[in-house]
Amino acid sequence: MIEDPAAAEVSLAPIRARLLAELSEPGSATMLAAKVGLPRQKVNYHLKALEAHGLVEMIEERRKGNVHERIMRATAASYVISPTALGSLEPDPARSPDRLSASWLLAVAARLVRDVGALITGAARARKRVATFAIDGEVRFASAADRAAFAEELAGAVAALVSKYHDESAEHGRDHRIVVAVHPSVKDAR
Question: Is residue 111 part of a domain?
């Protein structure tokens, strides 16, 4: 989870993003230069910027003649930029209280990314797992009226489940956030 604005900026530069992807397997600047078609010195420059922000790390140093070759790897298998990296621009559900607006959905999703990222980071430090649950699916509505009826019925079902299981008096209980979203599908551009 990238929370620092400067680290987010560094990771988003196209060549640096490519180097991060390549470093899912350890490699040196020389090896990466051949893969990405840049001079070794330029790759080294970008690697130092990524290393300064904790996105890559040196795992080994080898001596090749008069040269010390640094073997680097990405510090994570994948990265997500937390909305907290946006500072005061971070989407906030409180600023967009219209539950039917795309802005509100985006703000809720941003909070979800931020919160789950923090949970993953904390769990990794504690060497524990985070108990979560998600449902992902698609539904095709015949009309806007059907979509509205579905949303109303879904809200009622979730409210009934919350009412059934929520126990404010549970002394050792733990609060959980529920996020349910419905939005038009986007074709995968990959």
Answer: yes
- Closest Cα to residue 62, out of 21, 29, 22, 23? 29
Domain count, the chain: 2
Please state the pTM of the whole predicted model: 0.65
Q: 167 versus 66: which is more confidently predicted?
A: 167
User: Any idea what the Cα angle at residue 114 is, between residues 140 and 175, rounded to 5°?
Assistant: 85
Query: Residue 120 to residues 38, 107, 114, 126: CA-CA distances in angstroms?
Result: 35, 20, 10, 10
Identify whether the C-beta of residue 69 lies closer than 8 Å to the C-beta of residue 60.
no
The residues near 167 (Cβ < 8 Å, ≥ 6 apart) are 173
> Can you list the pairs that 31-40 forms with residues at least 24 positions away whose Cβ atoms lie under 8 Å?
none
Give dist(CA 7, CA 19) in Å, integer: 14
Residues 93 and 70 in one domain: no
What residues make up the domain containing 151? 86-165
Q: Within this chain, do residues 94 and 161 fall inside the same structural domain, yes or no?
A: yes
pLDDT (tens digit per residue) in 125-161? 899 998 899 999 999 999 999 999 999 999 999 999 9
Do residues 155 and 92 share a domain? yes
